[in-house]
Amino acid sequence: MSFTPESLDALFLSGKMERIGIGVRRACYAIPGTGLCVKCYRSDEEIALGKHVGYDPFKPLKGAVVREIRRNRFSDRGNTSCQEWRYYQALKERLPPELMAAFPATLERVLVPSRGWCLVEERIANVDGSPVRAFHKEWASAAWDDRIWLMDGLDALTDGLVRHAVRFYDPHNILVQWCVGGMPRLRITDFEPASRTLVSLDRLSPALVRLKLRRRFARYRDLFGLKSDGR
Questions:
Q1: Residue 231 included in any domain
Q2: Which of 23, 89, 112, 122 could form a cystine bridge with 104, CB 3.0-4.6 A?
Q3: Contacts of 208 (CB under 8 A, 6+ apart)
Q4: Is the pTM higher than 0.85?
């Protein structure tokens, strides 16, 4: 791979990284000339941008979130990127190839001096190079036939995640990638498998994972009116 901790650090410090996404805790940047991207906790400057960057009204990040970011930036145990990397390794050992294909083909963790633990992964884009969009946004603007394809894909992905008890509880993070021939492919990049509860019972109980998955996906479909018949 064409990156090192030192080269990534130099890119961050030079300001040459293009930020392509930002969530409550982490930001994502394209690594120039590689087809890869890097995710890491927000910098102090990005913390100051508030909860929903680019949207009004301004809302600051909760103090607990800020403390979590600063406490875990360099923590192998507590950093979300490290937790995600470890779970990804476990999934590679037990998931069938067709289900594992929803996750990034490349995912490596790197300790960058200025940003802490980062994840370097495949930058997922459409075949024409345009950015991918969340499933519910793509479904809302899709033609009727495309909606049927999309829902068939969501049904298959949901069934696979439930069957294999994958700890992925945020359907909002499912993306639609349009591939060669105009066919959609569902992808998952941010899966954050670690629970923030005091006792993570779902780590011990596949049955609880399946229950939570079914409930979260049912809620997601109801929220956006996602129908299997495309209407």
A1: no
A2: 122
A3: 201, 202
A4: yes
